Amino acid sequence: MQKKLNLTEFNSDTLALVRQIIKRYPEGRQKSALLPVLHIAQAENNGWLSAETMDYVASLLDLQPIEVYEVASFYSMFNLQAVGNCVIEVCQTGPCWLNGAEELLAHFEKRLGIKPGETTPDGRFTLKTVECLAACGNAPVIQVGTEYHENLTPQKADVLLDKWQEENKISHTNPYLL
Amino acid sequence: MATQILLNNIDVPGLANFEVYRQLGGYSSVVKTLKNLTPDQVTGEVTKSGLRGRGGAGFPAGMKWGFIDKKSEKPRYFVCNFDESEPGTFKDRYIGQRNPHQLIEGMILGAYALGAGSAYIYVRGELFYVLRIIEKAIEEAYKQGFLGQNILGSGYSLDLYCQPGAGAYICGEETALLESLEGKRGNPRIKPPFPALVGLYGCPTVVNNVETIAALPWILNNGGEAYAAIGVENSKGTKLISACGHIKKPGVYEIELGLPVEEFIYSDEYCGGIRNGHKLKAVVAGGSSVPILPASLILKTAAGEPRLMSYESLSEGGFQSGTMLGSGGFIVMDETTCIVKNLLTFARFYHHESCGQCSPCREGTSWMEKILHRIENGQGTMKDIDLLVSVSKHIEGNTICPLGDAAAWPVASAIRHFREEFEEHVKLQKCPF
Amino acid sequence: MPLLKVTIDTIEVEVEAGTTIMNAARQIGGSVVPPAMCYYSKLEGSGGKCRTCLVKVSRSSSKDIRPLPKLVAACRTAVQDGMVVQNTTSPEVMESRQAITEFLLLNHPLDCPVCDQAGECHLQDLSYEHGLEDTNTVEERRTFEPVDIGDYIKLHMNRCILCYRCVMVADQLTDKRVHGVLGRGDHSEIGTHISKAIDNDFSGNMIDVCPVGALTDKTFRFKSRVWFTKPLDAHRECPTCSGKTAIWMKGSEILRVTGRKDKYGELEEYICNDCRFHHKDASDWIIEGPRAIERHSVISQNHYEKLKTPGTTEPEF
Q1: Engineered SS bond to B392: which of B26, B338, B408, C27, CB 3.0-4.6 Å?
Q2: Pick from A51, A64, A74: CB nearest C194
Q3: B18-228: which CATH architecture?
Q4: Cα distance from B226 to chain A (closest Cα, Å)?
């Protein structure tokens, strides 16, 4: 299992990025940077936001910690519990369901031996269900980090899983470095 | 072939690069507008075009711009709503990822018309890779002098930024989007005041959908009248329809408003008909929020007229026998589809996405999902069906923002048109599909 | 500025520009006043959330005689001159109010018999007046364990209706708020995320603004039903607040201290925690006299104003 991180300081490159983001908003409106900075913090903290990490973000943006908790707990992309290296998010809304999302999800559950919301004992994979990813024309769809994988079948999922297994896929990367 | 305004060059390789886009005539509307037109003239052209908000509500864009508080001494903001999250809708992603400069060009025109010095494109967090494509295009536009100080020597300056969401459908509601852009929870604001008076940071603000903004360069290049010459009634111009479900050719299509629904579903130019030799059962024509219609009512109105892809024709018959154009998310279902199960996935969606601020939506969306879950799994009663109707009725119109209506309409319409299927679930004590 | 005329349930009243329908109705008083579970006139930005005050505007103004297409929140809608509003005279309003009461009760435990708020609970009042006799729901309610937030306040999240008042009062009284609304939708809850004590001289006011029994005074928990206590206006010299409070006595004992509330349950003034939690001795207070309680309130059942002087009453059997 991957070590649980408690990131409480960004490196200088990341800090420079954060400062650049804060400049996008008028003076005194640095709270606007909260969502972008939480994305970065989560990526650098192994894919989740610990209380300590959020407290650090609060201090960077001159906010009360509760303001960060309130926001982080509102948005579904922020994980407030530790996750595996590779988080697989399976869309289950109408259009994906019409195109076999249930079978696809069942396949992931079987292959990984876990239910949605769980992480494999080796800490490699976390399975999540999500709502509409806005790629309904290529359903069913999954998201892994910043990647979309579309028109999936259980067979295609196997190919992806084998690849991720082999390369020890890490899905959380700083999205601004894309 | 219908006029292509938005997808004209969508398949050109490298379109996301400035040079390629510029060579195809990109940014010429900015050159022309900043040189020849006053901001009010730009608004005038957009009003003349009859362009309506493409995010789903269909509010006339020119009129929305006209509401902006020009007396206020506060800065004004122009914001692009790229929080595309309505199930069945995937048109904005197509523009953003393939043709980001068209969106940027439209942003410059809109911001100029409104007198905004800063503009933001709010992109749903899941589409971060699209956000990065747009950010790179923005960088190019700055380098080429189309953004930043004194654009093309016109004296007009504009800064444009992308802002990520982080997983919340509700942020597609414009005031929730503004809250989110301020770094807060995406709770919709209580209106009035509307954003045109009190928007981002309390300043006058206009929020428009990606597709609306992407249509602006063509309108300014060709004139509002040319745009208004396309389409029918008050459905002017072209519309992106994202088609999905049990069709042969799912994808994003640009249609001239007024195209017959039958042609859209069956012609090879568009959906190509129902796949696997199946028959059409039902369509959700404008994103998951609009009423579902059975095959008979989507192809023809209750009066027997052919149904057209237009704001007016799709809503012909009201909610009794009509629906809405909405966002253009066109979900097609064949006869193998369980309407109850499909509805359950929608109900789960709205439950998941309710912000929880007002009680009818917070409690009602969760309740509807639970009742539907019961019916789908064979534990429902006939009384449950009526209860669902009553819960949906009591959410509708009673909430702070339209998410309540959006959750209620699919439930009410599915029972209105497919009641026997719900009853069958109850009688058989299981899903018949 | 000329006054604006507004008619609510056939009663006309003149109000200042900017007045909401709710406050115009409060100027009239009585049954035309819509219930308010989240609105609190002293809390900036409150209201609009619970939807219990939805009313029908059957005429927008003297200039625009059209009705508004949807019911509107009385607490967040400004009156226009010539506006005609229907509250209890509109069957549509009464139906939606009943439905909203049902929504609010959907996840609210029916634990009034063991809830300290019983007798002064706004949700209890609302359900007596607008609730269904029967229930439509067979669903399980969401449940939480009660937690201490701070030394003197118990949070019973099961009972919370997410009115946001306690968050707003904290925002108003401190710039270092530590609790807030966490989560989304029906998973939202009031909390501190990591257990943190709410440590602020005025935190006890959260209890007073809570319309239900979600936030209760730990120094009063399970001591007595409120209707067995007698409220008195009292004050003391206090360096932190005005010291003007209501003390709730049983015999010679002070069971609790609260702020003074008006007939809409709103505090006249915020009081400090020292007055509220640490002065339970009658000698701490200068008693001004009995506190007026609305006659319909269950609290008045045991109020000495009802007692008649000996000699003038018939003996009771």
Answers
A1: B408
A2: A51
A3: 3-Layer(aba) Sandwich (3.40)
A4: 31
